[in-house]
Amino acid sequence: MADTSGTAQPPQRPLSPWAERFGAPRDEGYHYWGYRPDGVEHSGFAPTYPRLDSRYYYDIPRNLSYPGVPNLAALDELFYSERTQQLEFHGLKTRQAGALNDFLYPSGARGGHSLNINAQYNTSLWNQELIIVDENSWAQCFKRHRWWTPEGSHNPQWTVDDDTIWGHLRISTEIANRILRVLLSERHPWFNTVMFGSVCHANPPQTGKAPVYTDWVNGSPPPEKGVSQIGLRYQSVNASSPSSHDFFNTFEHLTRNHVFSFDEESDEGVGNWTRWAATGLNKDEKTQELISITIVNVSMIRGLYEGSLTLQEANAAYFHLASTLLHETMHSLWNHKKHPNIFCPEPFIGDEYVCELGRSFERAVFGGKVEPICTLSRMRGGHTGNLYHGTFFGMCVQDWPNDEEADMYRSGKTDLDWSRDDMHEILERVRDRFMARELRYREIRPWYAEEYAKWQSSPWSRTNARNMILAFRHYHAERDITNVHRCLTWFDGDPLLKKSVGAGWIFEFIYYIMMGSITDQPVPAEPEIDYKRWHNPSQAAIQAHSAGSIPTMKNDNPIRRVFIQDGAAARPAIPPVYPTYGLTLAIRNLLNTYEAKYPTSKEWVYAAYRAWKDLVISRRQNKTDWADFTFEVPEYAPINMVIKDQDDLVIPDPDTVYRAYNPDTDGTLGLEVFQPSPGPRTSGGFSATRRTATKPLELLNTPTKYFTVSQAADRRWVLEDCDDGSVDIYDILKLLKQPQYQNYSFSDVTTCSKQGYRLLEGDPNPIMSNLCGDMKENGVSKGKLLQWLRTEEVAEHDGKHGLPLYVTYKSQVFDVTDFVADTQEQNDLVRKNPGGELQFSEHDDGSSRAALIKLLRPCRCGIVMPRKGRQVSLNALDVFTPSRLRHHDNPSDGMYTAIHGYVYDLTGYVDYHPGGLNILKDVCGRDGTSLFDKYHSSNLLAEEDYAALRIGRVIEERRANDIRRDEIVINDVVFNTKCFENEDLPLHDIISPYYGTNATQRVTGQDTDSRKTRSKLAAFYVKSKGRIVAKLRKTHILPSISREEMAKHNHFNSDHEAWALVGNDVFDITVIESSED
């Protein structure tokens, strides 16, 4: 395609074979199939397991078998691609298209999608059935001289003066003309209604209901422009109806001022992205006479022109173009129908509740809306910026009216009537081939059904939402408030995502996080967009009409050069979204969902919850500007999906979460209560406001005998195994003060195991044997260790066969074998689900639940063992600056530490640390490498249990001007670009001019001339987390405070915050009042 902009086109990434034939998604920077790690543009259509050829996709390789289940990433890509195909192809998967496109009707020729056929023979067989074109029989509006040519330099020049283009166009026109002539000769009721029917009033119909018609009253005011309030009652043909001759003449008269032209296939304009075949009223520059022009998008015939289509694809293209010519001609037909003193927008017809004359015609003739089975918004290599759908999988007829075109109404079902016997034979043959292929695929992929069921029940199956998250991240990087708002609008308007049911509730939580991360600026108004495109008469038109004209409706003045004036209406500004409101809604959503116990993926919950925590921390300093949106779709992990076992549902403690954002409230749901988080530590070390965990509720005024590993370790208690499998806990500190042991310290006689402190074993010193005996006889027994219990082990303890009766609440296990409650209702409840989760009533307000849990605390005997987490790949790790890490030193914001450059989340591990909780509190929020190396081997972190705790890596903070030559800065994030050309050369070529600079303004600017560059830089920003090496240090300018203002903040109990003056700096110390320290 020649460059029409006068500037060099940016380099393109190579296309996969399927993308070469069927196009790649537009805006590849924020689409699942764009910017893939292999550096290739993908279509999303390629079948896998087995991978089929993009042209010969009927052929399935022989002797294939995939007995082993593919890895999780491959499964997610397989199911995602098939979901993409179903959305694009009206429910069809690419692998199924081979059977449907194998035979052509009526010749019986093969469609051209198999290497195992004689292509030359099939072509000759098909040629015997080719339509014989008779241009003399055509309606005047279809003839060659009714085609205009768009101005501009194109390759090829899209004009009917090109015999190759006209050769393909005339076949489609012949098909359209034959259909038209049959309908007119039969005096079809639809034409009788449109051409001869009387206009009447039509009350705007309700959703899915037919309009109500009343006769038109002379002198009535015309309908409001742009709002169709007229209609046509469906008019059958009878003896008094006009003759076939009158039908032909009227049609010719109403279309005598109609011409066709092509779009310009450029980056902007009506042909590329507003519509690909449109009809509008247009004015000639000289005469100002109204004519009607249909713009046909050249992508409809590009595949035919290039000769790249199979027989089946070519026939689909011919029919699609024919139906489009008819569809758009019907609009022209109405444009020139005159009704005295009545403005005539398109009418409702019969029972149709949508005003769309082209679709109405298709419904009357074909039974529904005729659509190509292919995407309409894809790009093709070599035609940068242009829609490409010239390669067709086929055609289909959809129900019309439908939800897409009538604002959420219910559609009526229309069935096609296949009445011909030979058509039945073809359909049966296709059905048999189709079913045989499906059985073959079941043999090849025996694991498919089970794995797909897992994926389908997970959040990963919401492909539209995943794409919208990618789009939001991209526009967020560009600071594009208009498109960010559109993403939020899409989320808010999707009924599946607004209902907190099943695995999908997590998307509503993410939606609120999105809302909380944007600026509070309003969406700016959009001015009216006006496009003007000039079209000149073709040589065929010039030769057929004097001075290049065609007759007009009013007179015979010549009409030469025609322009299209079209565009988009202006849009007013949209009020701002307040970010902190999004944060409040997010936590409310999480709390409500937690109480409703809707299961979902742990990975999604943790990823979204971490993004929310990051946002809360960011908003402490930045209330209204853009904040980091750190959520990323996690790697697929169906093993962590909760489907039936409610006890396996792991959601961060809502009490802790709620108090983190609402510090003035007290929680009642959780088993442990923490102090609210007043703020981060200072860079100089621990501040006076450091938080400490309060004593767990189960240890307060209760005779509990069970303790966690950390609780025992912090108290320096010793563990000892019992014969029954339990673990006793002893306090030996008093024993060590006795004379025989006074020369031994606690560390001399104990070792720290994975469960906690134990006495040294195998020591030949007889003092150890004596100490062990004295411990059991004279030591102070403190109770039992809370043991890890698998869900299966808990279920076995159902009170039968001599086993105790266990029940669980959240992650806690209770032995209720001898439990006696205060009421019979409580006794019944604890025994309702033996070995499983306590099942409270849906109407429980929380009070009865809290009362029962309080009674059960002395019976606490174990902890449900969580399923092992999955190690995150290095490229997916989050990044933490030291200042960001400092916020995560408490249970509310997360207890993180850095070890050897990586960040570990210890929040869920602190209760089970063999060294106790206290030592972990000393390293949370900062680098703990030295303390870790003092007690542990570096190989420990490579073990699966600990590697799963790794969530990020540490990066440095720099000054604004500290940028190296092989780096680029976008939105204060510093990326290393070294050797990036080896990873993605086309993208490197686009962004390399900005290496060594801060390119933020280039990304967030709204200069339309740099739209491609801006999009590519934003794509790099979103997809290159693994290349982040630093963040720029932000400088906050503090306001000046007068002495009078300072005097107002002089007491903790005043109406104002409590401030303190240290030197010349003012500090808010209100939160210190609530700290135990």
Structure description:
One of its GO terms (cellular component) is membrane. It comes from Neoarthrinium moseri. With 1077 residues, this protein is an alpha+beta fold. It is 33% helix and 14% strand. The strands form 11 sheets. Strands 26-30-29-28-27 form a 5-stranded mixed sheet. Strands 4-3-5-9 form a 4-stranded mixed sheet, with no helix packed on it. The longest helix is centred in the N-terminal third of the chain and has 25 residues, at 311-335. The radius of gyration is 36 Å and the shape is elongated. Mean pLDDT is 76; it is low at 1-10, 267-288, 375-389, 403-420, 547-559 and 641-704.
Largest sheet: 5 strands, mixed
Give the strand content: 5-15%
Structural class: alpha+beta
Span from first to last CA?
72 Å
| Low-pLDDT stretches | 1-10, 267-288, 375-389, 403-420, 547-559, 641-704
Largest beta sheet: what is the strand line-up?
Answer: 26-30-29-28-27
Helix tally? 35
Return Rg in Å: 36 Å
Helix content: 25-40%
Number-wise, the strands total 36
The average pLDDT is 76
Backbone shape: elongated
